Amino acid sequence: MMAALALVLLQQPADTSRGRPCVVEIDSIGHNYKEVLQGNQKSYHAGGGVLAHCQGTNTRLETDSIAHYPGVGRSDLVGHVHIRDTTITLDANFVSYFVTNERLEAHNNVVAVNRNNGSVLRGPNLTYWRAAPGIRDTIEMYATQRPHIDYHGAGASDTSEPYVIVADRVRFKGNDRMWAGGKSTIDRSDFAAQSDSMQLDQTSGLGLLIGTPRVQGKGAQGYTLTGTRIELVLQAREVRTVKALGNGKANSADWVLTADTIHLAVERRKLQQALAWGKKVRPHAISALQDIRADSLALDVPDQVLTEGRGFGRAFSVSKHDSTVAAIKPECTGDNSDCLVSCVRPAVDCIAGDTLTAHWGQEKDSTGVERSRIRRIEARGAARSLTHQASHDTTGPSLNYSRGKSIDIRLRQARVDSITVGGRADGVSLEPKPPAKDTTARDSTTVKKDST
């Protein structure tokens, strides 16, 4: 019986014009075998445990039973199916193999392992197109119903940490290209992303997230990035740049950045720098007590710690004395170069210029947690500043307005410590009005004298 079935399966001719398909050759049958005639077509069935292989290849098949339908060019493998191809291992409870286009359709408890990089797919179904000369030059796979993928990508080792991908549907081509659609997520110990659809192409080193995309860098000083569209630049399977294109917003523990376009540079799995520019949404960076706007912004955050910010083009910055003070009035959210006095509120310092550079240092807050705190800010090119400086008495701070080619403000405990103005410097300093003299005691004495 085994010889008869093997002979029947071998009757499938080799397609010499397009490449040879997998010609199934039976190695052993446990016990049951029968032939079924339906019209002019005969089908062949074997059970009790079947071992087989693709003739002339290293592909091995194992299943509880097999049914072969020569008329439609299909073989069904039922029960505990195990397939070992040169590029993939596939386990499932039911598999249909279509000879003409080298397609496998697997269902029920599917587990597929890419033997080149160790990526693993688990899910309820999988369609797998084998690589075969004359038919296709690389494998392709498609799965639906939210499969779970441990994705390594080209050149990865089995021990490297995978990206865990879950989506409504996924498609793979070769070892390094993947597409996902419908509530797609990517997770790893240092990184997480979600969107309506995504693409990863490690041949070009590009990832793409579309549809309410969101990226998160994990850790104590992590970050999040949202935008209309997010692109990932990959190098050696590691994310090196994260780009928000349209309505970008980046958040970290010490700062918030908004702009049309935001680029985040990542190294050693940690954020190192943030760049922002745009016209529709002008770059705007906010830290605990600092507010900076400019035509373009650069934030240095080595290992996710804010150290320096630079603004270029119509740069404007506000320093608040405490976190409860509003920085800028709503009517002055655009170019504030000409409204320094009218657009800030009491107890708020501001500085403007063609360019700004702000420096932060690490200081412990009241709870003992280290935070980035502004220590110095410089303006160059048509520089202007409005600051409050504490008086030696209790009358309140003095008000200082300065202009020059450059202004250098140094702060201590988030308050102005010194101001240096260079290049055609001028300005005005206003001392607080002295308190009114207390005449209460004199008046009461006069009244007492009169009554006497």
Low-pLDDT runs of 5+ residues are 1-19, 323-328, 333-339, 444-452
By secondary-structure content and strand pairing, the structural class works out as mainly beta
Percent of residues in helical segments? Answer: under 10%
Distance between the termini: 139 Å
* Overall pLDDT level: 82
Largest sheet: 32 strands, antiparallel
From the 3D structure, determine the CATH topology of the largest domain: lipopolysaccharide transport protein A fold
CATH class of the largest domain: Mainly Beta
What shape does the CA trace take? rod-shaped
In CATH, the homologous superfamily of the largest domain goes by the name Lipopolysaccharide (LPS) transport protein A like domain
Named at the architecture level, the CATH assignment of the largest domain is: Sandwich
Radius of gyration using CA atoms only: 35 Å
**Strand residues, percent:** over 45%
What's the β-strand tally?
32
Number of domains: 3
Q: How many helices in DSSP terms?
A: 2
Explain the overall architecture.
A hairpin with an 8-residue loop joins β29 (370-389) and β30 (398-412). Helices cover 4% and strands 58% of the residues. The protein is rod-shaped and about 115 Å long. It is mostly beta strands and 452 residues long. It has three domains: 1-183, lipopolysaccharide transport protein A fold (Sandwich); 189-260, no CATH class; 282-452, Lipopolysaccharide (LPS) transport protein A like domain (lipopolysaccharide transport protein A fold, Sandwich). It has a 32-stranded antiparallel β-sheet that branches.
